[in-house]
Design goal:
The protein is α/β, with parallel strands linked by helices and 280 residues long.
Length: 280
Amino acid sequence: MVTAVLLWITGFLIVCCVLLFARMSYEARLHAVTHSEVMMEGLPEAFDGCSIFFISDIHKRKLSNKYLQEFQGKADWVILGGDMMEKNVPLERVKENLEILSGVGQVYAVYGNHDLKADPEGLAQVLRDTGGILLRDQNIRLVRDGEEVCLTGVDQPLTKRDGYPDLPDLPDSDTKACRIVVVHDPAWIRFAPNKPDLILAGHTHGGQIRLPFFGAVRLNAFYRKYDCGWFRWYQPQSAVKLPQMLISRGFGNRRVALRLCCPAEMHLIRLKKGTADKLK
């Protein structure tokens, strides 16, 4: 009788482990796109209703051309939040991913920490070859119907001890321009003196493994606060009343292709002119 009970318990635990592993593998391999709408007070009228396809932390994964074809014509720009590759990822795979993304829209990208450890020069060349634009502490003007939004790419320091530089200055005539910043590591907000209208970041993977009620298992205090999703804060000295930031869970995975309560994601973000009374 005791032996039968032990066998039943053992079998039950094995089944639970198999199901858990299958779920974690499924979450890590998703091609899901999270749809969001962000209200921006300073957004020019011409940009009202425009969309950004945002993806970060691809790492080793391959994008699906078949899946992303449905987003052609639905995004005005594609923004990559860094870690487009990592060590031992062939540049040919990176090129294939970038070619797929360039079919969705004009690509703008920043380096992530793993890009810098892998092959930054090769990655920069592949970006150029596929029509992408690498932003390294640079501003670029996005233009529609004579109106402009400033897109700023913040460069990733090689090590955290190197620190982040200040945001590149805008021309005097554009000091009140609507500004979108893409930066790999959201820790940048601790050093940025002036917050832009919108920040797009990655790096955290949302913790990748999250436990119910507890959250991310392997994030420090700052990243546990800013782990994934939409965030905003109020700065009395800022001209932007409600600066907003999206931290993506990322498309790829670190070390193992497993996730729990933290599925892989890409983003389609619709920009709307108006008061940022809530985040969607």
